Amino acid sequence: MRDLDPLLHSQLRLSIVSILLGVVEADFVYLREKTGATSGNLSVQIDKLSEAGYIDVEKENAGRSSRTSCRLTSKGRVALEEYIKILREDYFPSH
């Protein structure tokens, strides 16, 4: 059996990437609401995905508030597709 990408094997990171697969971009609040993660944990996981090049993160300041938005990169899309392929072929071959 091939190893699964350890970066995507985290439930929260996999959730973030999966959400971003279905949208053009998502802001921090949306991701927090959809994943149920705490702000601190979500922030750490977003940083890890960004450092790996799986997502692009843009931070905007608008007066007193700021907005963080995330987009899945082509590298992240390929990594997720490979992760799913390995799951299907190696872990659930009958599907």
Largest sheet: 3 strands, antiparallel
Helix content: 40-55%
Low-confidence parts: none
Return the average pLDDT rounded to an integer: 94
Q: Report Rg.
A: 14 Å
Order of helices and strands: HEHHEEH
Sheet with most strands: strand arrangement? 1-3-2
Ends distance: 16 Å
Q: Indicate the structural class.
A: alpha+beta
Strand content: 15-25%
What's the total number of strands? Answer: 3
User: How many helical elements?
Assistant: 4
**Apparent shape:** elongated
Report on the structure:
This protein has 95 residues and is an alpha+beta fold. It contains four helices and three strands, in the order αβααββα. The chain has helices at 11-21, 28-35, 39-51, 74-91, and strands at 26-27, 55-62, 65-72. It has a three-stranded antiparallel beta sheet with strand order 1-3-2. Strand 2 (55-62) and strand 3 form a beta hairpin. The longest helix is centred in the last third of the chain and has 18 residues, at 74-91.
SSE blueprint and pairings:
Elements: H1 11-21, E1 26-27, H2 28-35, H3 39-51, E2 55-62, E3 65-72, H4 74-91
Antiparallel strand pairs: 1-3, 2-3
Output the keywords.
19% strand, 53% helix, 95 residues
Quick structural summary:
The chain has helices at 11-21, 28-35, 39-51, 74-91, and strands at residues 26-27, 55-62, 65-72. The chain is an alpha+beta fold.
